Amino acid sequence: MIAAASAAIPNDEIGVPMRGPMSMGPPGVFVRWRSAFPFLLALLAFPFLCGGAFAHAVAEGDKGYIQEITGINLMPFIYLGAKHMVTGYDHILFLFGVIFFLYRMKHIGIYVSLFAIGHSTTMLLGVYFNVGINSYIIDAIIGLSVVYKALDNMGAYQRWFGFQPDTKLATLIFGFFHGFGLSTKIIEYNISPDGLVPNLLAFNVGVEIGQLLALGAILIVMGFWRKTPSFFRHAYTANVLMMTAGFVLIGYQITGWFVS
Fold this sequence. Notes:
Layout: H1 2-7, H2 29-50, H3 60-68, H4 74-86, H5 89-99, H6 105-128, H7 135-153, H8 156-161, H9 167-188, H10 196-226, H11 230-259
Helix pairs in contact: 2-11, 4-10, 5-7, 5-10, 6-9, 6-10, 7-9, 7-11
Protein backbone atom coordinates (compact mmCIF):
# COMPACT_ATOMS: atom_id res chain seq x y z
CA MET A 1 0.00 0.00 0.00
CA ILE A 2 2.76 2.43 0.94
CA ALA A 3 4.60 1.64 -2.29
CA ALA A 4 1.46 2.29 -4.32
CA ALA A 5 0.93 5.56 -2.50
CA SER A 6 4.52 6.60 -3.04
CA ALA A 7 4.04 6.18 -6.79
CA ALA A 8 1.07 8.54 -6.54
CA ILE A 9 3.03 11.44 -5.09
CA PRO A 10 2.88 14.33 -7.55
CA ASN A 11 5.74 15.89 -9.37
CA ASP A 12 5.49 19.18 -7.55
CA GLU A 13 7.61 20.79 -10.22
CA ILE A 14 4.37 21.17 -12.14
CA GLY A 15 1.88 20.77 -9.29
CA VAL A 16 0.26 17.61 -10.65
CA PRO A 17 -1.93 15.94 -8.02
CA MET A 18 -1.91 12.32 -6.95
CA ARG A 19 -2.37 9.55 -9.48
CA GLY A 20 -2.35 5.80 -9.54
CA PRO A 21 -3.90 3.22 -7.24
CA MET A 22 -4.53 5.65 -4.40
CA SER A 23 -6.72 7.83 -6.58
CA MET A 24 -8.94 4.85 -7.35
CA GLY A 25 -9.66 4.22 -3.69
CA PRO A 26 -7.15 2.02 -1.83
CA PRO A 27 -7.95 -1.36 -0.32
CA GLY A 28 -9.26 -1.21 3.22
CA VAL A 29 -10.87 2.17 2.66
CA PHE A 30 -14.06 0.93 4.38
CA VAL A 31 -12.11 0.29 7.58
CA ARG A 32 -10.67 3.80 7.50
CA TRP A 33 -14.08 5.28 6.75
CA ARG A 34 -15.47 3.50 9.79
CA SER A 35 -12.73 4.97 11.97
CA ALA A 36 -13.24 8.41 10.40
CA PHE A 37 -17.03 8.37 10.74
CA PRO A 38 -17.12 10.51 13.93
CA PHE A 39 -15.09 13.19 12.15
CA LEU A 40 -17.48 13.10 9.21
CA LEU A 41 -20.42 13.63 11.56
CA ALA A 42 -18.60 16.58 13.09
CA LEU A 43 -18.11 18.09 9.63
CA LEU A 44 -21.77 17.66 8.79
CA ALA A 45 -22.80 19.30 12.07
CA PHE A 46 -20.32 22.16 11.71
CA PRO A 47 -22.58 24.73 9.98
CA PHE A 48 -25.32 24.28 12.57
CA LEU A 49 -22.87 24.66 15.45
CA CYS A 50 -21.22 27.75 13.99
CA GLY A 51 -24.36 29.54 12.84
CA GLY A 52 -23.65 33.13 11.83
CA ALA A 53 -19.89 32.73 12.31
CA PHE A 54 -19.57 30.40 9.36
CA ALA A 55 -17.35 31.20 6.37
CA HIS A 56 -16.93 34.96 5.82
CA ALA A 57 -19.19 36.29 8.55
CA VAL A 58 -17.63 38.84 10.93
CA ALA A 59 -18.03 38.70 14.71
CA GLU A 60 -20.62 41.14 16.08
CA GLY A 61 -18.02 43.16 17.98
CA ASP A 62 -15.84 43.52 14.89
CA LYS A 63 -18.89 44.37 12.79
CA GLY A 64 -19.82 47.22 15.10
CA TYR A 65 -16.24 48.48 15.13
CA ILE A 66 -16.02 48.50 11.34
CA GLN A 67 -19.29 50.44 11.10
CA GLU A 68 -18.40 53.07 13.70
CA ILE A 69 -14.75 54.04 13.18
CA THR A 70 -13.60 56.75 10.80
CA GLY A 71 -10.20 57.92 9.66
CA ILE A 72 -7.02 55.93 9.24
CA ASN A 73 -6.76 53.02 11.69
CA LEU A 74 -3.96 50.80 10.43
CA MET A 75 -3.22 48.51 13.37
CA PRO A 76 -6.87 47.65 14.13
CA PHE A 77 -7.45 46.74 10.48
CA ILE A 78 -4.28 44.67 10.35
CA TYR A 79 -5.58 42.79 13.39
CA LEU A 80 -9.03 42.31 11.85
CA GLY A 81 -7.52 41.03 8.59
CA ALA A 82 -5.27 38.54 10.37
CA LYS A 83 -8.12 37.38 12.60
CA HIS A 84 -10.36 36.81 9.60
CA MET A 85 -7.82 34.64 7.79
CA VAL A 86 -6.76 32.59 10.81
CA THR A 87 -10.38 31.83 11.75
CA GLY A 88 -11.62 31.44 8.16
CA TYR A 89 -12.76 27.85 7.83
CA ASP A 90 -13.01 28.03 4.05
CA HIS A 91 -9.60 29.66 3.54
CA ILE A 92 -7.83 27.13 5.74
CA LEU A 93 -9.48 24.17 4.02
CA PHE A 94 -8.53 25.45 0.59
CA LEU A 95 -4.93 26.14 1.64
CA PHE A 96 -4.76 22.68 3.18
CA GLY A 97 -5.84 21.18 -0.13
CA VAL A 98 -3.46 23.32 -2.17
CA ILE A 99 -0.33 22.29 -0.25
CA PHE A 100 -1.40 18.70 0.47
CA PHE A 101 0.98 17.21 -2.11
CA LEU A 102 3.50 20.06 -2.38
CA TYR A 103 6.80 19.32 -0.66
CA ARG A 104 9.20 22.08 -1.73
CA MET A 105 8.95 25.54 -0.21
CA LYS A 106 9.52 27.06 -3.66
CA HIS A 107 6.36 25.47 -5.03
CA ILE A 108 4.34 26.12 -1.88
CA GLY A 109 5.36 29.78 -2.20
CA ILE A 110 4.22 29.93 -5.83
CA TYR A 111 0.76 28.53 -5.12
CA VAL A 112 0.20 30.53 -1.95
CA SER A 113 1.32 33.69 -3.76
CA LEU A 114 -1.15 33.04 -6.58
CA PHE A 115 -3.93 32.60 -4.05
CA ALA A 116 -2.86 35.79 -2.24
CA ILE A 117 -2.77 37.79 -5.49
CA GLY A 118 -6.27 36.65 -6.42
CA HIS A 119 -7.65 37.15 -2.93
CA SER A 120 -6.10 40.61 -2.49
CA THR A 121 -7.09 41.90 -5.94
CA THR A 122 -10.82 41.27 -5.68
CA MET A 123 -11.04 42.19 -2.01
CA LEU A 124 -9.44 45.61 -2.56
CA LEU A 125 -11.12 46.42 -5.88
CA GLY A 126 -14.47 45.00 -4.80
CA VAL A 127 -14.69 47.29 -1.76
CA TYR A 128 -13.18 50.34 -3.48
CA PHE A 129 -15.55 50.16 -6.45
CA ASN A 130 -18.45 48.88 -4.34
CA VAL A 131 -18.79 45.66 -6.35
CA GLY A 132 -20.58 43.06 -4.26
CA ILE A 133 -21.94 39.60 -4.97
CA ASN A 134 -24.74 37.86 -3.08
CA SER A 135 -22.93 36.53 0.00
CA TYR A 136 -24.67 33.14 -0.14
CA ILE A 137 -23.75 32.59 -3.77
CA ILE A 138 -20.11 33.66 -3.39
CA ASP A 139 -19.64 31.50 -0.27
CA ALA A 140 -21.18 28.55 -2.10
CA ILE A 141 -18.61 29.06 -4.88
CA ILE A 142 -15.89 29.16 -2.22
CA GLY A 143 -17.20 25.83 -0.92
CA LEU A 144 -16.95 24.58 -4.51
CA SER A 145 -13.28 25.57 -4.52
CA VAL A 146 -12.69 23.21 -1.60
CA VAL A 147 -14.52 20.40 -3.42
CA TYR A 148 -12.54 21.08 -6.60
CA LYS A 149 -9.20 20.89 -4.81
CA ALA A 150 -10.07 17.68 -2.97
CA LEU A 151 -11.09 16.01 -6.24
CA ASP A 152 -7.91 17.33 -7.86
CA ASN A 153 -5.82 15.75 -5.10
CA MET A 154 -7.61 12.44 -5.63
CA GLY A 155 -6.83 12.44 -9.37
CA ALA A 156 -10.51 12.55 -10.29
CA TYR A 157 -10.12 14.75 -13.36
CA GLN A 158 -7.58 12.48 -15.06
CA ARG A 159 -9.78 9.49 -14.35
CA TRP A 160 -13.07 11.07 -15.42
CA PHE A 161 -11.99 13.35 -18.26
CA GLY A 162 -8.48 12.19 -19.16
CA PHE A 163 -6.74 15.52 -18.55
CA GLN A 164 -5.24 17.56 -15.73
CA PRO A 165 -6.57 21.11 -15.22
CA ASP A 166 -4.02 23.89 -14.81
CA THR A 167 -3.59 23.86 -11.02
CA LYS A 168 -1.87 27.25 -10.86
CA LEU A 169 -4.60 28.96 -12.88
CA ALA A 170 -7.30 27.31 -10.78
CA THR A 171 -5.63 28.52 -7.57
CA LEU A 172 -5.55 32.09 -8.91
CA ILE A 173 -9.17 32.00 -10.09
CA PHE A 174 -10.49 30.61 -6.83
CA GLY A 175 -8.38 33.23 -5.05
CA PHE A 176 -10.45 35.85 -6.89
CA PHE A 177 -13.65 34.29 -5.54
CA HIS A 178 -12.30 34.11 -1.98
CA GLY A 179 -11.50 37.82 -2.20
CA PHE A 180 -15.00 38.64 -3.45
CA GLY A 181 -16.41 36.75 -0.49
CA LEU A 182 -14.63 39.09 1.88
CA SER A 183 -15.29 42.28 -0.08
CA THR A 184 -19.00 41.47 -0.15
CA LYS A 185 -19.09 41.27 3.64
CA ILE A 186 -17.11 44.50 4.09
CA ILE A 187 -19.49 46.33 1.75
CA GLU A 188 -22.45 45.11 3.78
CA TYR A 189 -20.96 46.72 6.90
CA ASN A 190 -20.73 50.16 5.28
CA ILE A 191 -17.10 50.91 6.08
CA SER A 192 -16.41 54.65 6.29
CA PRO A 193 -14.96 56.25 3.12
CA ASP A 194 -12.72 58.36 5.39
CA GLY A 195 -9.37 56.55 5.31
CA LEU A 196 -10.83 53.77 3.17
CA VAL A 197 -7.77 53.00 1.02
CA PRO A 198 -5.18 52.90 3.85
CA ASN A 199 -7.53 50.85 6.01
CA LEU A 200 -8.19 48.39 3.21
CA LEU A 201 -4.46 48.03 2.53
CA ALA A 202 -3.87 47.47 6.25
CA PHE A 203 -6.64 44.89 6.32
CA ASN A 204 -5.03 43.13 3.37
CA VAL A 205 -1.65 43.13 5.12
CA GLY A 206 -3.39 41.53 8.09
CA VAL A 207 -4.96 38.92 5.81
CA GLU A 208 -1.52 37.99 4.45
CA ILE A 209 -0.07 37.81 7.96
CA GLY A 210 -2.94 35.55 9.00
CA GLN A 211 -2.43 33.44 5.90
CA LEU A 212 1.24 32.94 6.78
CA LEU A 213 0.34 31.99 10.35
CA ALA A 214 -2.28 29.50 9.17
CA LEU A 215 0.06 28.13 6.53
CA GLY A 216 2.84 27.74 9.08
CA ALA A 217 0.58 25.74 11.38
CA ILE A 218 -0.59 23.54 8.50
CA LEU A 219 2.98 22.91 7.33
CA ILE A 220 4.11 21.92 10.84
CA VAL A 221 1.29 19.41 11.17
CA MET A 222 1.76 18.13 7.63
CA GLY A 223 5.50 17.83 8.15
CA PHE A 224 5.06 15.49 11.11
CA TRP A 225 2.24 13.58 9.40
CA ARG A 226 4.21 13.01 6.18
CA LYS A 227 6.98 11.31 8.16
CA THR A 228 4.60 8.57 9.29
CA PRO A 229 3.18 5.64 7.26
CA SER A 230 -0.32 6.86 8.13
CA PHE A 231 0.05 9.75 5.67
CA PHE A 232 -0.10 7.40 2.69
CA ARG A 233 -2.75 5.22 4.32
CA HIS A 234 -5.08 8.11 5.09
CA ALA A 235 -4.37 10.64 2.30
CA TYR A 236 -7.35 9.50 0.24
CA THR A 237 -9.73 9.58 3.20
CA ALA A 238 -8.47 13.02 4.29
CA ASN A 239 -9.31 14.45 0.87
CA VAL A 240 -12.72 12.79 0.84
CA LEU A 241 -13.44 14.40 4.21
CA MET A 242 -12.23 17.74 2.87
CA MET A 243 -14.53 17.34 -0.14
CA THR A 244 -17.41 16.54 2.20
CA ALA A 245 -16.72 19.70 4.19
CA GLY A 246 -16.86 21.68 0.93
CA PHE A 247 -20.22 20.15 0.03
CA VAL A 248 -21.50 20.98 3.53
CA LEU A 249 -20.48 24.61 3.01
CA ILE A 250 -22.19 24.67 -0.40
CA GLY A 251 -25.38 23.16 0.98
CA TYR A 252 -25.43 25.50 3.95
CA GLN A 253 -25.09 28.58 1.76
CA ILE A 254 -27.60 27.47 -0.86
CA THR A 255 -30.11 26.69 1.88
CA GLY A 256 -29.52 30.13 3.38
CA TRP A 257 -30.06 31.72 -0.03
CA PHE A 258 -33.45 30.04 -0.43
CA VAL A 259 -34.74 30.74 3.08
CA SER A 260 -33.38 34.29 3.45
